[in-house]
Amino acid sequence: MKTSNLITGLHHVTAMASSPQENVDFYVGLLGLRLVKKTVNFDAPDVYHLYYGDESGNPGSIMTFFPFQNMKPGRHGKGQAATTTFSIPIGSVEYWLKRFDQFKVKHKSPQKRFDEVVIYFEDSDGLGLELIANDKDPRAPFTYGHIPLEHAIRGFYSVEIWENTYERTEALLVNQLEHEFIAEEGPRRRYKAKNGLPGQVIDIVWGADNPYGVNGSGTVHHVAFDTPSDEDQLKVREAVQSAGFNPTPVIDRQYFHSIYFREPGGVLFEVATTPPGFSYDEDMEHLGTDLKLPPWQEHRRAYIEGLLAPIVINPEKYASAH
Ligand code: ZN
Question: Are residues 133 and 117 in contact, defined by beta-carbon separation less than 8 angstroms?
Fold first, then answer.
């Protein structure tokens, strides 16, 4: 049997937002994720880059945002990772439905998918998200303090990419990115990396009738897969390039090293290294506390700070009534 060593699941998902404060309120306040890094878009330092995740920001738990204050809303559709799915314990469905009702989060009623219960919901910019209740997630729970630990989000379960058709994307996932096809339900085809645990799953949802996505706030910019080391990343890069794709050179993202390439259906894929991680420039206890800049921007700190609206973490705003 083929084992996956170079790609070990999802690393992070990066999406576009509008208001940074509303973004923090939603992901920290409402969902109980930890703000593990507050930095800027390395290519446009007047915009935050906010990273949310579990306690230490492990790969497979990291949702990141570029909140452009006045960005126009986009639309979910083909050529995008349309929905990001988080893992919750099997007994937590009622808790989350009540929480969504209490805080007026737009959501659908629970549905069945491969024998598990899924709740679709949207963040304050309309980004498509889901919770999947399951009993196979071995990851330790983390909560920011206002959500009972027993109901806490464990990290990603999967990411859903929307495609016109699946064949060429499947070939890339299977042949170059060490995934295995495991299940099918209607227009959904599921692939696993490594052991297929939550955080190691990607779904292709395909169909000619779906609209194409439009970039803007509330849409995903790219999906990153996790690779254990720089050496492994170069092997993946070589494989992807040999298959006719056009990966970027390795780019230093401070907390990981990255390559990017577009898959056949148009979704931007990234392969990011596990090391060095978010404790690279902040100790574990203080992750997300200070505005962190890459060394080459440090001399402009006063100027950059002047461009960014301050954001505050206020989980009390989302204290549960039950
Ligand atoms: Zn990324």
Answer: yes
